[in-house]
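From: lab user (bench 3)
To: helpdesk
Subject: output format question, protein + IPE

Hello, I'm new to running complex predictions and I'm not sure whether the block I got back is the full result or only part of it. Here's what I submitted:
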Amino acid sequence: MLLVVKLGGSAITDKSKLFFFREQRAELFARELARVLESGRKAVVVHGGGSFGHPIASKYRLQEGGLTQEKLLGFAETRYWMNELNQRIVKALLRHGVPAATVQTSAIALAEKGSLHELNTAPIERFLEMGLVPVLYGDVVPDLSCGMAILSGDVIAAHLACTLRASALIFLMGSGGVYSKPPGTPGAHLVRELREEDVIDVGDSRGVDVTGGLRQKLEYAFKAARCGARVTIGGVDYLWEMALGVDAPYTMICVSGMRTP
Ligand code: IPE
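Helpdesk reply: Thanks, we reran it on our side. This is the complete output you should expect:
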């Protein structure tokens, strides 16, 4: 059984504070993932950029493409900070005995007009066969028509869930799931089952976000659910429950004709 876990930037960084890594949340994630792997499941991890990726990409407006010297510096700087965040996450996983091995997204992905064009999954599949846990991330990548583009981890995770025929796709977010209104606003409650026709107020994500925030996440969540994966959105605290299909406070993405766990 293969799980794809998207570790949102909001779950492991404070998106309103530059380069603020939430060490304890990363530790909890690593501990919970180790527990999940003990159940015999395999996993691919895709993490987001949080306050290591979005502010740098936004400073150079990389989401608009381009290939000037300034943009190339922005590309390289974004790659540097994503690598830094990746190292910290992988280090936490190693501390908990998870054989996490990075597969650098920009080396295997191509975009076209800002959308994912091609992702070479061969290195990921090889790592999985060996028993490793491949770790990818949202990244700045070459774009065939506009020079460069930002690919969010949500897009990569949903794509992998479909192409690798994962049984589950788990989105981990700082907020702990999808709320009827932005969390913290009066009357906001956790939506336990979300259908495409349901109307929710997604609000604005905190801090800088160059990849479309919750709205885009939901679009890809439904896409993966239609591929047959059990898609859930929740907090790091309930990773084990989401992975094993145990009921807990998280959001389940519901599409008609869905497979049961
Ligand atoms: C963004 O990835 C990557 C960069 C900005 C380089 P995501 O869009 O997946 O990041 P989060 O989860 O929203 O932080």
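A quick orientation on your result: Residues 8-9, 48-50, 53-54, 57, 78, 82, 138-140, 150, 152-154, 209-211 surround IPE (CB under 6 Å). Let us know if anything else is unclear.
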